[in-house]
Amino acid sequence: MTRIVVIDNHGQFTHLEGRALRDLGVDTEIVDNTTPPAEIDADGLVLSGGPNMGRIGRCAEYLEMDVPVLGICLGLQIIATELGGTVGSGDYGGYADVTVEVLDETDPLIGSLAPETRVWASHADEVKELPEGFTHTATSDVCGIEAMSNAEEDLYGVQWHPEVAHTAEGEELFENFVDVCSQ
Questions:
Q1: 61 is catalytic
Q2: Which residues does UniProt mark as catalytic (predicted)?
């Protein structure tokens, strides 16, 4: 059975990420972001959302674990920052229902959601510049980089929250990530 560990970055929806994975039949556990990487046994990791970059614990170390990683909201921003991209303030700060245009139909994480999907996202902060080796996979009128991926390294990130009911195809996104982790 595929095991995916959710790294808790103290976000309000972290428990829903764990539940979404359990509902798909995945062996999952939520662990605090200060857990040493050596204590984590997983086929994949989800870096949850959270309030700010000042409380990301050992997330940089988790990116070196050689397992697929899905970053959600702050998790996306952590991946971008730690690997050489840039993050800055968004033009629209609060949560919003947003139509996201999928730019890469071949992307293992979100390609199946093409041509567009409705999502629930916060844009207080957002990725402004991709890290080297990443592909810009989704955009919206609210945020230029709604998603990015480096499929070769199995690193993926979305600005939106696939775990909440307001996101139309969140379950499909998690199914796609489970598929990546099961290979």
A1: no
A2: 73, 161, 163
